[in-house]
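Many introductory courses stop at the sequence. We go one step further.
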Amino acid sequence: MAPPVRPATDLLEVGRVDRPHGIKGEVVVSLVTNRTERLNPGSELQTSDTTLVVRRARPFERRWVVAFEGYGDRHAAEVLRGAVLLAVPLEDPDELWVHRLIGAEVVCTGGVARGTVAAVQANPASDLLVLDGGALVPLTFVVAVDGGDGELTRITVDAPAGLFDLP
């Protein structure tokens, strides 16, 4: 019997199943996290409708070949094709997690409030804070993050003149 599925709102996307690999039920997984411990044996990952337990994983080119408990052949693994893999947030006080940026107030070094972070957009040069008013602020301009009780409440940015004047 599979463990119960957690509500998706408590989970973060950590990867995606690309396709089956071989005949023993393994799948090729593309991770969207640099935390490869997500694929340690015994780790639990969620899809939209089931909990998957990692049996084993190994690097494969720029992706991973992963075997999940209960998926013993290629036919069984085929049902996982395209599945988004979700996991509970990791607790690491030395890391700034993207999901914690959402809802934080953004202020300039001069103290001017610029809005609230509505999303974080991936960008090759630097991820962007998407503010509720539509402004985009590269994370390279972030100089401080403040919060208490594990909650991030304020992000201070040293943005170049005119950044917030753009339409």
